[in-house]
Amino acid sequence: MSVLARGGVGPLCAAARAVIPCLWRGKYFSSGREPAENQVTPMLRHLIYKIKATGPITVAEYMKEVLTNPAKLLGIWFISEWMAAGKNAAFQLVELGPGRGTLAGDILRVFSQLGSVLKNCDISIHLVEKTPQGWREVVIDIDPQVSDKLRFVLAPCVTPAEVFIQRDEMRDHVEVCPEAGVIVQELSQRIAIAGGAALIADYGHDGTKTDTFRGFCGHKLHDVLTAPGTADLTADVDFSYLRRMAEGQVASLGPIKQQTFLKNMGIDVRLKVLLAKSDEPARQQLLQGYDMLMNPKKMGERFNFFALLPHQRLHSRSHPMNASPSKPAVSPVAGFGELAWQ
């Protein structure tokens, strides 16, 4: 998942050109100093003209410029929550950032009788670094030594992104995504008023990581500032931030690793059934897919699942002593506890 207002800072301030070169210490991308060939793409020319005209741009703005399957089990999760919510006839399946809509299409095939609303939301991040002068945003400028090359620099003054830093923040590098907060707040408000549930699945962490901004080209890591427009840019979701943005309006579960979530959803049982019905080539394909989804070194521990639910959905999970014996116990939330197969 990715989300954020086009936010940037516009022209940063009158002293915007008095920037401080910054070596962002992320292991996934470089500062642009390495002697690598930089393909002068049309996007790079556009960015250079933009920076010359308005000054350094935020990483969020850079991403927005550059970036313009366990589906059946996810379908089962949504059906489970739909049933727990009372099987309301009015149902919407909303996927944020659907790309070509393949995942949602696969889920809809699980319950083809239900309609869907797909919304395309791009999510970008702001990089903020702790300095002796306080928190400063990392922005992107033209390298004065190489006219067709970009570099990371520190903003010379305070920018709006810094207000999203927690006062007790212990990390010295933070990636913030205000748009993700806005979307989670809107989802939380809608769920609190009308019911429903949200399931968020993505690369992510629980407020422990610092530098996750990276690029991929041809399934390989790629310098995020080299040949912009030719690589996919991404960053991990900070689920601790999403939890804060829910602001107590709804309950949250997770994040939990994909391996655990899918195991709780019964992927092993499903695999066994499918293997029994498949020929040898299909079995090999199923086993390879299972390994990709569940192997901790692949997607098993890289993807996380996080859910937003009405408070009353979890209210009776503790089974208080004075609960009415005639009142049915609240069923566990699928994926976040082991399913009881009957």
TrEMBL record:
It is found in: Mitochondrion. Belongs to the NDUFAF7 family. It is an enzyme of class 2 (transferase). It holds the Pfam family Methyltransf_28. It catalyses: L-arginyl-[protein] + 2 S-adenosyl-L-methionine = N(omega),N(omega)'-dimethyl-L-arginyl-[protein] + 2 S-adenosyl-L-homocysteine + 2 H(+). GO terms for cellular component: mitochondrion. One of its GO terms (biological process) is mitochondrial respiratory chain complex I assembly. It comes from the Eukaryota. This is Protein arginine methyltransferase NDUFAF7. Its EC number is 2.1.1.320. PANTHER family: PROTEIN ARGININE METHYLTRANSFERASE NDUFAF7, MITOCHONDRIAL. Keywords: Acetylation, Methyltransferase, Mitochondrion, Transferase. Arginine methyltransferase involved in the assembly or stability of mitochondrial NADH:ubiquinone oxidoreductase complex (complex I). One of its GO terms (molecular function) is protein-arginine omega-N symmetric methyltransferase activity. It comes from Ailuropoda melanoleuca.
